[in-house]
Specification:
193 residues, alpha+beta, Tetrahydropterin Synthase, Chain A, 3-stranded antiparallel sheet, two-stranded antiparallel sheet, 45% helix, flat
């Protein structure tokens, strides 16, 4: 609900006001029973409108202001780094298998024995996880620690558990497929040739 009315009515009102057709393409909801859901809008042109929007959920019974401050920093981090998943358990298994296959092929080209190839692949997978999972990424606010370590540091400061339970990142235009056409064929079709 937006101001007590359904989203569909808000969209209909906006269409009538603006005079352009609109559809709701993507939505996401994050919630915590106790804690905060912090937000950040990158490139904001007005309140809540910008090129990238991020939500970060931190579950904790600790100080809401401190949780919100860290949550906003993590949201800024997510806007900048665009992680694929919260942690390794949430990574798409197909992506992991594809990366593993590529790493294995690269390692085999080195001509090393199979037991060494296995260790090379494990090391490269660890590095891959550090690059694409939010918890393992170097925190852009303090690159000497991971995002996971920043959350642990706040938990220690607050004297209570803090759990990074989820994030959502939306970028303007993301997921819109643009139809590519051959310009010469388009001109020929328009001229009837």
């Amino acid at each position: 609900d937006l101001d007590g009315k359904p989203v569909s009515d808000a969209i209909t009102d906006a269409i009538a006001t603006i005079g352009e057709n609109m559809t709701l393409r993507r939505t996401a909801v994050l919630s915590v029973s106790e804690g905060v859901v912090a937000s950040y809008v990158h490139g904001a042109v007005s309140e809540g409108l910008g090129k990238i929007g991020v939500l970060v959920a931190l579950a904790s019974s600790g100080d809401k202001d401190k949780l919100n401050a860290l949550g906003r920093q993590i949201a800024m981090h997510v806007a900048a780094t665009s992680p694929l998943a919260l942690n390794t358990a949430e990574l798409d298994p197909a992506v992991v298998e594809r990366e593993k296959a590529v790493f294995s092929e690269q390692a085999r080209e080195s001509g090393k024995p199979e037991n060494i190839i296995e260790k090379m692949v494990e090391g490269r997978l660890r590095k891959f996880y550090e690059e694409v999972t939010l918890e393992k990424q170097a925190f852009v606010i303090n690159p000497d620690q991971t995002v996971e370590q920043a959350v642990e540091a706040l938990a220690k400061e607050l004297g209570t558990e803090v759990k990074l339970s989820g994030f959502v990142r939306f970028a303007l235009g993301e997921g819109i497929e643009k139809e590519e056409q051959d310009f010469a064929a388009e001109v020929a079709a328009a001229t009837g040739q």
